[in-house]
Write a structure and sequence with these properties.
This protein is of the alpha+beta class. The chain is built from 11 helices and 8 strands. It has 2 domains: 250 residues, no CATH class; 65 residues, no CATH class. It binds zinc ion.
């Protein structure tokens, strides 16, 4: 998540269609994902990267769209939620046969993320050539959303489904990787000097939205089709640099969590103590357990905790006794 705040975006007309009717407060990341995150968490609360010391009720939002455009997005989101996100998260399906709603829903998310990052000046230090491509990507995605104009591969949407890691034989794997892969909502825009992508992480779904990527040929089996397609566990090939990008995102989330104050830490532990059955059934604990299995208790807990603080597991034990 960026340091600046999306709620500071102040527009005088709808960002999608230029409509002059009253602007709504839009979710940057769809609200059903935030609900899923809260429902499947150990505490039922969320904290976002830019300020982990504040417990919030909702995800990042901005006054961006008129009611009509907001409704357009919510129709595609509903299909994505019911036909893809929920069946995968519930374990009812491991692959999803999709139709046209998939590219509409994912492009609408990518457009919101890239537009919002640009609007809060998070891209102001990107090279001029990349910024020009950002403008072109936003324009192409907008025309696809509004008029169904075909999207080119330059600005394609690529999706990866991830799960808990069975083993960690690669070097430099962050010790919170399973919590990051399965339990984190994150968004970012990254560039390599010549090209860029918008990145939206929604639990186990990683969406990479190309902004004229120069290594597009290295991405195989991830591109979402405009009409029909299959999202699943088939063969994939990705650029090797992507792994270090994901590891860096995981480390950055761990670093943010290690800044949680002692007071807030105590509040989290109180939530655990109040409802131990919720904790033990939560996906949060499942991800923590997998990190412990792969890296050992001390390393897994120290990854997200200030070094001077007592270990989380010891705290939980203390609470239970
Ligand atoms: Zn509008």
């Amino acid at each position: 998540m960026p340091k600046a705040i999306f709620s500071e975006i102040n527009l005088d007309k709808c960002a999608l269609y230029g409509c002059l009717s009253e602007l709504q407060i839009s979710h940057i990341i769809p609200s059903f994902m935030i609900r899923w995150f809260k429902d499947s968490s150990a505490t039922g609360h969320i904290r976002f990267g830019e300020n982990p010391n504040v417990r919030v009720q909702d995800g990042p939002k901005a006054r961006m769209l008129c009611q009509e455009c907001e409704q357009l997005f919510s129709n595609w989101e509903k299909e994505f939620a019911e036909k893809c996100f929920e069946p995968i998260c519930d374990g009812r399906a491991h692959e999803i046969q999709y139709t046209a709603w998939m590219l509409k829903a994912t492009t609408s998310i990518s457009w919101r993320v890239l537009f919002a990052f640009d609007a809060i000046n998070e891209l102001s230090e990107f090279p001029t050539a990349v910024r020009e491509e950002v403008v072109a990507a936003l324009d192409e995605w907008k025309r696809f959303l509004l008029n169904d104009q075909q999207c080119t591969d330059r600005f394609g949407q690529h999706m990866l489904l991830v799960d808990l890691l069975d083993c960690a034989t690669i070097a430099n794997v962050p010790h919170n990787i399973n919590r990051y892969l399965t339990r984190t909502i994150d968004c970012d825009v990254a560039h390599n000097g010549e090209s860029a992508f918008a990145y939206t992480k929604m639990g186990r779904f990683m969406l990479f939205s190309f902004v004229d990527m120069d290594d597009a040929h290295l991405w195989e089996g991830t591109k979402l089709n405009s009409k029909n397609g299959l999202l699943g566990e088939g063969d994939k090939s990705l650029p090797p640099e992507l792994l270090s990008y994901i590891f860096n995102r995981a480390k950055s989330v761990a670093n943010t969590y290690s800044q949680i104050s002692e007071f807030q830490q105590e509040k989290i532990l109180q939530s655990y103590g109040k409802n131990p059955s919720r904790v033990s059934a939560s996906e949060t604990l499942c991800a923590v357990n997998q990190d412990v299995l792969l890296f050992g208790k001390r390393s897994a807990f120290e990854a997200t905790q200030p070094k001077s603080k007592p270990h989380l597991e010891q705290d939980i034990k203390k609470k239970r006794n």
